[in-house]
Specification:
single chain; 271 residues; alpha/beta; Rossmann fold; Gyrase A, domain 2; 2 domains; seven-stranded mixed beta sheet; five-stranded antiparallel beta sheet; 6 helices; 12 strands; 30% helix
Length: 271
């Protein structure tokens, strides 16, 4: 049984500001340790549930955050940036389930460090007319490969987002948002114990879960932070300008939409 784990950082217990999440931040090295601890808890749960192979994808920023020498030795790590499928690199239809660890809520929520892919450039993302964040977009990527998302961890706002999108998902709330830059945090050891238990349970009950699939063709609308970013994004072939700072793109499938979205954000950030 193969399990895929994508690990972000903003949803890790104890992380509440950008200084935790960037290499130049004063608390970044502690954050790396906390991130590695939570993914190890998920790996332990997966192994207890009978997983024979666990692939971990470091999915935050430059994607070299997980301390590999401290990673559980039974897991294999995908590290580095850029990667063709970014936060879901390495996933295919041979996997039995996906666990999303350390995830955060989408932009324009009240969650800790909320954003959608790029905190610098993206004001909102819609897929087929519905607001969506990284969690939802990555669920659709998993669905494209017919793999169910079994579990998600993060703050209470991420839990709400996950439970609204994926029926029956095991969602672990490791902190409760008190604002974008503050949270009520449990002890990391307690968070890891909950994650390990939930991962084991989620995988043992995986046959109850269904993949979440995007309706195709996929219509995507990206609202950027300003019109200059939209000017730059409009260079991309196939883009439609639908507002002062909004562009739209229609893709045949969600993988194409995902890569188009990443291209849009890269162009927008070049301004």
């Amino acid at each position: 049984m193969k399990i895929y784990i994508s690990v972000d950082m903003e949803g890790i217990c104890g992380i509440v500001n950008w200084d935790c999440t960037s290499e130049s931040g004063y608390d970044y090295h502690r954050a790396r340790s906390l991130m590695t601890g939570e993914v190890n808890a998920a790996i332990r749960g997966a192994l207890k549930a009978g997983a024979s192979e666990v692939i971990v994808n470091d999915s935050h920023n430059k994607m070299t955050n997980i301390v590999i020498e401290d990673l559980h030795p039974e897991a294999v790590l995908i590290s580095g940036y850029p990667k063709l499928n970014s936060m879901m690199e390495g996933l295919d239809d041979t996997f039995d389930g996906v666990l999303l660890i350390g995830y955060h809520s989408r932009i324009n929520t009240r969650g800790v460090l909320n954003h959608t892919y790029s905190s610098r450039s993206v004001y909102n993302l819609k897929i087929n007319g519905t607001d969506i964040g990284e969690f939802g977009l990555n669920c659709y990527i998993a669905g494209h490969y017919n793999v169910p998302v079994l579990m998600a961890t993060g703050d209470d706002q991420l839990t709400c987002e996950a439970e609204a999108m994926v029926t029956g998902i095991q969602a672990v709330t490791v902190k409760k948002a008190r604002g974008r830059y503050s949270a009520l945090c449990m002890h990391p050891e307690r968070a890891c114990a909950l994650i390990e238990e939930a991962a084991q349970s989620a995988i043992q009950n995986k046959d109850r879960m269904l993949p979440v699939k995007a309706v195709e063709p996929v219509h995507m609308e990206v609202t950027l932070m300003n019109s200059g970013m939209a000017d730059e994004a409009e260079i991309m072939p196939g883009i439609e300008r639908t507002g002062a700072n909004t562009v739209a793109y229609t893709a045949p499938d969600v993988i194409t939409a995902y890569r188009a979205f990443r291209t849009i954000t890269a162009l927008a950030c070049s301004v």
